[in-house]
Design a protein that fits this description.
The N and C termini lie far apart (about 55 Å). α2 crosses α4, α4 runs antiparallel to α5 and α11 crosses α12. The chain is elongated, with a radius of gyration of 24 Å. It has 13 helices and 5 strands. About 45% of the residues lie in helices and about 15% in strands. The protein has a 5-stranded antiparallel β-sheet. β1 and β2 form a beta hairpin.
Length: about 280
């Protein structure tokens, strides 16, 4: 670790340490300076007080990832602060730690609700759909009519003859979905979390099992989706995928009709079916 990096790490650690209230951690006694003492942070992080002192003094060499994680926990760092700590200490972000989604923020929901002719969904790294707009309900699937545990795109693809019949090229789409799913799970650190779903689908669908064994890894960035819709007819949608800032477990996909006439029909159908939303 360079001297400038060591100095930046030292300053960051000291700043975060002095922001903490000793009384909230059960530490008492008169203090000349605000925040926790160095030995108290070391105690909370379960590391050597001498080693922690060296880090705050800009010496001692590069800390390990385990030490940085302990310090982050001891200093009650946010996920963004933890990532910054790793960038200062090791020059790289920490390994992703998957945390399951508990829905989306009201702000994100309001954003996708403004897209009245463009279906939009938010999904987890395990491809459970956790948010959608009105256009998505009429074009893709009415997720609100399904139990929470059944809103999974992989299950739709391989368990539902209805969903399969609406695809123009199900075979290529299935390959693309499985490859993108594999990449998303690994990127979010959710490999162990998807194991039960993968085992279920491998047992129920020989097609999924074959695609999973192929080990394809694909990117769900942007492209075109064609659907055979029972009311809208054959429609074509361009889609784009977006990361949700601060939520590595979530991704947003927006589908835009390539034809303005189709957009008008989607808008009218959504309004007719769900007029009060």
């Amino acid at each position: 670790m360079s001297s400038s990096s060591a100095g930046s790490l030292a300053a960051f650690l000291k700043d975060r340490r002095t922001r903490l209230d000793p009384a909230s951690f059960g530490f008492s006694g008169r203090r000349r300076t605000p925040g926790l003492r160095r030995e108290e942070v070391a105690q909370r992080a379960n590391i050597s007080p001498t080693w922690y002192t060296w880090l705050e003094q800009g010496r001692g060499g590069a800390p390990s990832a385990d030490v940085l994680n302990r310090i982050a926990k001891g200093l009650l760092l946010t996920e963004a602060e933890r990532e910054h700590l790793f960038m200062l200490g090791l020059g790289r972000p920490p390994e992703v730690r998957y945390t399951g989604a508990e829905g989306v923020s009201p702000r994100l929901q309001r954003l996708i609700d403004t897209l009245d002719a463009s279906p939009a969904i938010v999904r987890t790294a395990t491809w459970d759909v956790v948010a959608w707009n009105r256009a998505a309900r009429v074009v893709l699937t009415d997720y609100s009519a399904l139990p929470e545990g059944e809103r999974n795109i992989l299950r739709f693809m391989f368990h539902s003859p209805h969903i399969r019949a609406r695809q123009h090229d199900w075979q290529n789409l299935a390959r693309f979905v499985v490859g993108s799913f594999r990449a998303d799970a690994a990127r979010a650190g959710a490999v162990s979390e998807v194991r039960e779903l993968v085992d279920e689908l491998c047992s129920a669908s020989p097609e999924f099992a074959a695609l999973w064994r192929a080990n394809d890894v694909l990117s769900h960035g942007d492209g075109t989706k064609r659907l055979k819709h029972p009311e809208l007819g054959d429609i074509e949608l361009g889609y784009s995928g977006f990361a949700v800032d601060g939520r590595p477990d979530l991704s947003l996909t927006v589908y835009n009709p390539v034809d303005s006439a189709v957009a008008d029909r989607i808008r009218a159908l959504a309004l007719a079916r769900h007029p009060k939303e």
